[in-house]
Amino acid sequence: MQRVGVFVCWCGSNIAGTVDVQAVSDALKNEPGVVFSTNYQYMCSQAGQDIIKNAIAEYKLTGIVVCSCSPRMHEATFRKTAAAAGLNPYMVEIANIREQCSWVHKDILTGTEKAIILGKAAVAKVNLNAPLTPGETPVTKRALVIGGGIAGIQTALDIADAGFPVDIVEKNPTIGGKMAQLDKTFPTLDCAACILTPKMVDVAQNENIRIFSFSEVAKIKGFVGNFDVTIKKKARYVKEELCTGCGACTEKCPMKKVPNEFNLGMDTRSAIYIPFAQAVPKVARIDPDACNMLKKGKCGICSKVCAAGAIDYTQKDQYIEEKYGAIVVATGFNPISMDKFDEFAYSQSKDVITSLEFERLTNAAGPTAGKLLRPSDHKHPHTIVFVQCVGSRCDSCAEKGKEYCSKICCMYTAKHAMLTRDKYPDTEVYVFYIDVRTPGKNFDEFYRRAVEEYGVKYIKGMVGKVTPEGDKLKVQASDLLANRQLQIDADLVVLAAAIEPDKSARPLATMLTASMDTNDFFTEAHPKLRPVESPTAGVFLSGACQGPKDIPETVSQAGAAASKVIGLLAKDKLTGNPCVAHSDEMMCNGCSTCERVCPYGAITYEDKEFRMPDRTTKIRRVASVNPAVCQGCGACTVACPSGAMDLKGFASAQIMAEVDAICK
Amino acid sequence: MQMKEYKPLIVAFCCNWCSYAGADLAGNNRLNYPADVKIIRVPCSCRVNPMFVLRAFQRGADGVIICGCHPGDCHYTSGNYYTRRRMAALFSMLDYLGIEKERTRVEWVSAAEGAKFAATMNDFAEKVAALGENKRLEDLRCKQ
Predict the structure, then answer these.
(1) Where does the pLDDT of residue A627 fall: very low under 50, low under 70, confident under 90, or very high at 90 and above?
(2) pLDDT at B3
(3) Do residues A328 and A563 touch, judged by C-beta distance below 8 A?
């Protein structure tokens, strides 16, 4: 029989407001095995933990039940408390009487009644707990960063600076991500390239960092500290180690009419190309859909002009297998497709563009060399209408837009409007908005400057329809504050498209068994207290893959993720989860059912010698679980026909005891 | 003797990674659901042995619901697929034994779906309450 101590937490008034804590601790006093029961205002505080420690010593407790908040919140805290008092940390059970009781029930009677039952279930379980000792596994001291945008770059640099090797896997031919496409950055208006490209060069030169550009993660196996990752290095038909990035091939390539994705199709590139001048690695890539040599076997000019002999038309996808201790997801975002927003005539008129296209139009390295010219006739636009929240905060149009706020659009639209008025004071600039949200440091000042100093016309209201008429765009809109309809003849309409997670995130999450929310943003382990960790151990989140973010936020999150990775890689050994499956060899009949359901291949069979009652020996085939590989899901425990397989910490007898306590 | 108001007894098995977290989120957002629902935490929905479900009914539960991660999102890759198949078989057998299908349910609730968790529990409790007390499997020897 255990000697159980029960500790009921008030959590200030969070629990005590709806649950009579005194009644709970009194009722649980009479449960089997309970020798001590008390309640306190904040069990997780130092004073509360001292009560637990003293009670363990005084009453020689062998198990404790804490009736408090969710075990996801403080189970680890109370396990540490128990360990500090010399009790095995796995002799602690939590009854969740806050999230699953006091916060969801209003009536004090029902709340108390339920809290007592949850407490009884926990007592019943702890009576069957056994001390557990976690095993240890070694840590592979190398990190993988998936995505080479500013988030991935910053994470990789910070990890590398701490002395650990890092690999970046980037699906595009160059790192740099969305930030490389931007012109200026708010709220300081320094140019994106001037602050990003030095970092890209740092990445290339850092001896701790390897870049797998034009590569994707194909397969992920393993667990925290020991991930086995297969990286697919897509064929770029250019030998990366030989190419010097001189650009002779791109000049001589006869196929010059390929839409340039870096400039969002607003100009063209050659079939063999380097995405942009500051690309890292500065290595050409042949687009197999455009190259005559790869399509028809005719041409081969690039291989003739390449002095380095880097062209290889027969290159194949390569698969590289690597081991990592930690994985950082930095897959970033994309603006949503504007195809479904017919009301803004995006697909009808070339002069209706997205903000990212506007960014390229005003960029000195963009298709117009930084001159603001209309894409249709290359004339200077005199009236520009910016439409905010296109697809963002879109409750009613869930099938084409997003319900959430994309966060960055208010600021970049203010930036676009301000830069336009600065360069071309003759331009009239209108911004239509639902709300202007500028809560960052120096953000509101920035927006006010756009309105007050640069005379940008901010109008609260939405644009209803854009109709191309001649060389004008007729914009119908409502001004909600003046309560009137507006008609504006615009030359250019810029849509602040909502942003969504990159399409590669969903399959990646499946490979990582990391969870995502309904919008495909990665979920963090705790929204406030563990914002850069995913619920899957060893997987960290950086940048917009977790939610819309601007550059300063992305960089700080990238640094935070890096510090978590460094903390993990600095350990030589990780203590594993002791709640793993184990087989009762006397009951096991060696049927292999458990082996087949195990998703981790943790179960193997071995022939073992058993002494029989008649003193003979017999060799039987029995299951054996590798505790370092087992993750403790329990699939095998249910599959086992002879009931030999059980899960430590969640044993069948323990769960049955909980069921019994609840159904009493 | 005054008749006590009938309250169903519902056991909810929630997987640690998605549904238990979803239940916590329902709590964080103060989304009410009936106190008749008592949650048991399991590492994965596939840890739920059909024996546990039978035991609950035997001990007088009126409904049993098993919540796990959405298909494809299982923390252990494939656990919820096992759950789906096992429970489909179990529930049809229970239906044959007279435990109506409305008393048993498998539901996918992610860690982000606090609202779905509360709505599911409200709906399930209502359906179970409408059926009344479950006497089919109840073993009175358990209730001395």
Answers:
(1) confident
(2) 55
(3) no
Q: What is the CATH number of the domain that holds B75?
A: 3.40.50
Contacts of A488-491 with C-beta under 8 Å, sequence gap 24+, read A488/A383, A488/A385, A488/A430, A489/A383, A490/A381, A490/A383, A490/A384, A490/A385, A490/A430, A490/A466, A491/A351, A491/A374, A491/A379, A491/A381, A491/A382, A491/A383, A491/A384
User: A635, B79: Cβ pair inside 8 Å?
Assistant: yes
| Residue B76 domain boundaries | 10-136
Residue B101 lies in a domain: yes
**Interface ipTM > 0.85:** yes
In the stretch 62-81 of chain B, residues with CB closer than 8 A to chain A read 69, 72-79
Return phi, psi of residue A272, to 5°: -100, 130
**Alpha-carbon distance A413 to nearest alpha carbon in chain B (angstroms):** 31
Domains of chain A from N-terminus onward: 4-126 (3.40.50), 143-234+317-332+503-569 (3.50.50.60), 248-305 (no CATH), 336-500 (3.50.50.60), 581-648 (3.30.70.3270)
Residues in B touching A660 (Cβ below 8 Å): 55, 59, 142
CA B86, CA B94: separation in Å to the nearest integer? Answer: 12
Task: Quick: pLDDT tens for A281-337.
Answer: 999 999 999 999 999 999 999 999 999 999 999 999 999 999 999 999 999 999 999
Q: What share of chain A is helix, strand, coil (3-state, %, to 5)?
A: 30, 25, 45
User: B5 in a domain, yes or no?
Assistant: no
Average pLDDT over residues A214-226: 92
The answer to whether the CB atoms of B82 and A635 lie below 8 A apart is yes
d(CA A263, CA B52): 60
Inter-CA distances, A197 with A153, A599, B44, Å? 11, 43, 46
Q: Give residue A395's pLDDT.
A: 77
* pLDDT tens digits along A526-544: 778 889 998 788 999 999 9
pLDDT digits (tens, 9 = 90+) for A457-501: 999 999 999 999 999 999 999 999 999 999 999 999 999 999 999
Is residue B143, in this structure, part of any structural domain at all?
no
Please, what is the Cα angle at A257 between A252 and A260, to 5 degrees?
100
Residue B1: pLDDT above 60? no
pTM greater than 0.80 (yes/no): no
What are the structure tokens assigned to A364, written together?
A: 């000195």
Tokens of A458: 């901010």
Amino acid (one-letter) located at A312: D
- The pLDDT tens digits of the residues spanning A594-621 come to 999 988 888 999 999 988 889 899 999 9
Closest-approach residue (CA) in chain B for A116: B38
pLDDT at position A34 is 96
- Is B30 part of a structural domain of the chain? yes
List CB contacts of A528: < 8 A, sequence separation 6 or more.
Answer: none
Domain count, chain B: 1
Q: Who's near A441: CB < 8 A, 6+ residues apart? A: A187, A552
CA A143 – CA A162 distance, rounded (Å):
12
Q: Return d(Cα A216, Cα A223) in angstroms, integer.
A: 19
Count of CB atoms within 10 A of residue B141's CB?
Answer: 7
Mean pLDDT estimate for chain A = 94
Place of tokens 């049927």: A591
d(C-alpha A10, C-alpha A16), whole Å: 5
**Chain position carrying tokens 């041409």:** A299
Neighbours of A608 (CB within 10 A): 14
Q: Write down the pLDDT at residue B2.
A: 53
Residue B80 with chain A: CB contacts under 8 Å? none
**Given the structure tokens 């899901």, which residue do they identify?**
A633
CA atoms within 13 A on the CB side of B135: 2
Interface test with B, best of A105, A221, A515, A539 (most B CBs within 10 A): A515
Of residues A134 and B5, which shows the higher confidence score?
A134
